[in-house]
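Hi R.,

Here's the chain you asked about this morning:
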Amino acid sequence: MSGPSESDKRVAERLPIRMLVEYESSEDFLIDYTANMSIGGMFIQTSNPLEVGTRFRLRFRIPGREDPVDTVGEVCWVLSPEEAGCMQPGMGVRFEELTGTDRVAVESMLSDWD
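And here is the predicted structure, written out as tokens:
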């Protein structure tokens, strides 16, 4: 399994938040769901994860906020369908370019969720 390394261990708690996320690969515009999220990133459930190290644009909507969060993420680790077993396959994504206002919106959503 190519799970998170010691250097990728998360500092922020991940909450079990399921929301639609739109993202672009080099070939397609994709829509999947998150399984969990923190201020630093999210796990996107997908049977076709992007490769570790891939940077890509992603968008998601925070309830009660008009504008979507539009940022760049990087794939830090992958759980392939073959490795997933009874878990959902997907990819751990770290936010790379979360703006100040988007960061505040995500922090607010996470604190309301908790």
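One quick note: Strands lie at 20-24, 29-38, 41-45, 55-60, 69-79, 90-95.

Cheers,
M.
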